[in-house]
Automatic annotation (TrEMBL):
It comes from Microbulbifer pacificus. Coiled coil: none annotated. PROSITE patterns: ALDEHYDE_DEHYDR_CYS, ALDEHYDE_DEHYDR_GLU. This is NAD-dependent succinate-semialdehyde dehydrogenase. Residues 22-476 form the Aldehyde dehydrogenase domain. Pfam families: Aldedh. Keywords: Oxidoreductase. SUPFAM superfamilies: ALDH-like.
Length: 482
């Protein structure tokens, strides 16, 4: 941990209007692997959040009026600074969030890829000239930035989720205010250090650290100067924020809960399916919104899959993210471990059977052992997002049953399927009620693809050419020329 103390990227002040703010109360940031305090940061309230919004509001005309090429250059410089400081950022990320250092490095690069992508897309915001109804006029369409954007980001990917939101906002000409999760504020503050170094003007990017989520949320949703809110987190909180935003009719982007099915058909490459399920389920100790929540395996290959899958799960190494060869780090808090233990207990009470794991880790830290459960489709653990290293496995008979089980949820973020039958792939993929479907592939996230869900998993898309849409307003000009 001593390495962290030597980096100028580790800050305890919030970043508002181009200045580093100190407050009156503090918030301790703990390492989930050991419980020790990494840093004590200043803890702010609604007044600081309001000041951040005012700073973004004041900076908006200047940033909006820069050319797309000027904004692109600054974003690209920021990207290069992130790449240059990947190791320091990864160390901070692992310390406060717990994921293995290799995963932390991958997250930093993943987040940086969005800044690079939207630096390029900033120069590709196009309007239209439309054929007029009469020759005495011309019809034009412009795309303009929506204005001040507020974002509330989660603790599971504290660097990448922020980058994925701020990059399109700044590329479009919007200014930005962020409240990172209280558990993991250090990654956001580190990005602010590099933003300042890269020449992002004062007020364009603001970070307010606060344990008072409700207070700050009320500022973001209630202030008329904020024209868009972007939130990644739970569905109940997302619904509340959306309702509050309705009072000022803000645009919203919501990336909410998931209940991802991972379907293994009888013609699948079983080894490939096992590898995909391991990567999807146990990345970040199962604490990802798109990770596999239920594994559905067709009857003919069920026993073969279970044997291979459990063997691979048994090989996973659990420990501090700083240890060599660790596959699973800790969960974020003791409460998160308690939730997973409760879900496993409920599943067993309903007739589920533990094949491997099923208990907390030994010693200090928020650890839960990688677990595999045999359950029925109606098991309680299949009804909510686990957000932990537990694999409920369900047996199914045919395609229709698999689709029915997969869609039997209010959520619709990500789904996965493994098959070598092209006809089956098309039929099932089109029937799955999800915003993203991985086919013989579980690594579906990248900056070039539209990330987002349907049903109660959210609104809007992040990344890809579609990622700018939510940060732009469409303005129609009717020009009389007679």
């Amino acid at each position: 941990m001593h390495k962290l103390l030597n980096t100028p990227l580790l800050r305890k002040e919030s970043y508002i209007g181009g200045e580093w703010w100190r407050g009156e109360s503090t918030l301790a940031v703990h390492c989930p692997a050991t419980g020790e305090t990494i840093e004590t940061v200043w803890d702010f309230d609604r007044e600081a959040a309001t000041a951040a919004v005012r700073s973004a509001e004041l900076a908006l005309p200047m940033w909006r009026d820069k050319t797309a090429k000027e904004r692109a250059h600054i974003l690209r410089t920021w990207h290069d600074e992130i790449i240059r400081h990947t190791e320091e950022l990864a160390l901070i990320l692992t310390a406060e969030q717990g994921k293995p250092l290799a995963e932390a490095r991958a997250e930093i690069l993943y987040g940086a890829s969005y800044i690079e992508w939207f630096a390029e897309e900033a120069k590709r915001i196009y309007g239209d000239v439309i054929a007029p109804p009469n020759n005495d006029r011309r019809v034009l369409v412009l795309k303009q930035p929506v204005g001040v954007v507020a974002a509330i980001t989660p603790w599971n990917f504290p660097s990448a989720m922020l980058a994925r939101k701020l990059a399109p906002a700044l590329a479009a000409g919007c200014t930005f205010v962020c409240k990172p999760a209280a558990e993991t504020p250090l990654s956001a503050l580190a990005l602010a250090v590099l933003a300042e170094k890269a020449g992002v003007p004062a007020g364009v990017f603001n970070v307010v650290v606060s344990s008072r989520a409700r207070e700050v949320g009320e500022v973001f949703t209630g202030d008329a100067a904020v024209r868009k809110l972007s939130f990644t987190g739970s569905t109940p909180v997302g619904k509340l924020l959306a309702a509050q935003c309705a009072q000022t009719v803000k645009k919203v982007s919501l990336e909410l809960g998931g209940n991802a099915p991972f379907i293994v058909f009888d013609d699948a490459d079983i080894d490939r399916a096992v590898a995909g399920a391991i990567a999807s389920k146990y990345r970040n100790a199962g604490q990802t919104c798109i990770c596999t929540n239920r594994i559905l395996v067709q009857d003919a290959v069920y026993d073969k899959f279970i044997e291979k899958y459990c063997a691979r799960v048994a090989e996973l190494k659990i420990g501090s993210g700083f240890e060599d060869g660790v596959d699973l780090g800790p969960m974020i808090t003791a409460d998160a471990v308690g939730k997973v233990a409760r879900l496993v207990g409920e599943a067993c009470a309903a007739g589920g059977r533990i094949l491997i794991g099923g208990k907390r880790g030994n010693g200090n830290g928020n650890f839960y052992l990688p677990t595999v459960l045999e359950v029925a489709a109606e098991s309680p653990i299949c009804r909510e997002e686990i957000f932990g290293p537990v694999s409920p496995v369900i047996r199914f008979v045919n395609d229709q049953e698999a689709v029915s089980i997969a869609n039997d949820t209010p959520y619709g973020l990500a789904a996965y399927m493994y098959s070598r039958d092209l006809g089956r792939i098309w039929r099932v993929a089109e029937q799955l009620e999800y915003g993203m479907v991985g086919i013989n592939e579980s690594g579906i996230s990248n900056e070039m693809a539209p990330f987002g869900g349907v049903k109660e998993s959210g609104i809007g898309r992040e990344g890809s050419k579609y990622g700018l849409d939510d940060y732009l307003e469409t303005k129609y000009l009717c020009m009389g020329i007679s």
